[in-house]
Amino acid sequence: MRRSPFAAAAALLLLTLSLVSGARADESLDQLRRSGAVGERYDGLLVVRSQSDAAARAVVDQVNAKRSAIYEARAKKDNADVKEVGKLYAREIAGKAPAGTWFLGEDGQWVQKK
């Protein structure tokens, strides 16, 4: 079956848009973390630090949904506890997060990355 040049161009455009929007989402997340509006939790999920920030809430909900799906798939694959998988990813996230990011520990204390 032959594909039309239009279909190939449309597929390429969709792929490009998804990559750009993913990069923008990462950039937006980093900005929110640097500003302190969003923090990282010990379990690998994000938390909104300013409950009145609807834009931050939308980003947190979107990122947490993606992260949760990844953690669940990994836990199922490795026959592991989802919470433990999230904690492992949290360590990796901490290493990659920009300076200024706030981290909420299991003890409820906030610590800022220098």
Q: Can you characterise this structure?
A:
Strands 2-1-3-4 form a 4-stranded mixed beta sheet. By secondary structure, it is an alpha+beta fold. It is built from 3 helices and 4 strands.
Task: Provide a quick synopsis of the model.
This protein is α+β, with helices and mostly antiparallel strands. The chain has helices spanning 5-35, 54-78, 82-96; strands at 38-41, 46-48, 102-104, 110-112.
Annotation keywords:
4-stranded mixed sheet; 62% helix; 3 helices; 114 residues; alpha+beta
Extended strand count: 4
What sort of overall outline do the alpha carbons produce when their principal axes are compared? globular
Can you give the mean pLDDT?
84
Helicity range of the residues? 55-70%
Radius of gyration: 17 Å
Provide the fold topology.
Elements: H1 5-35, E1 38-41, E2 46-48, H2 54-78, H3 82-96, E3 102-104, E4 110-112
Helix pairs in contact: 2-3
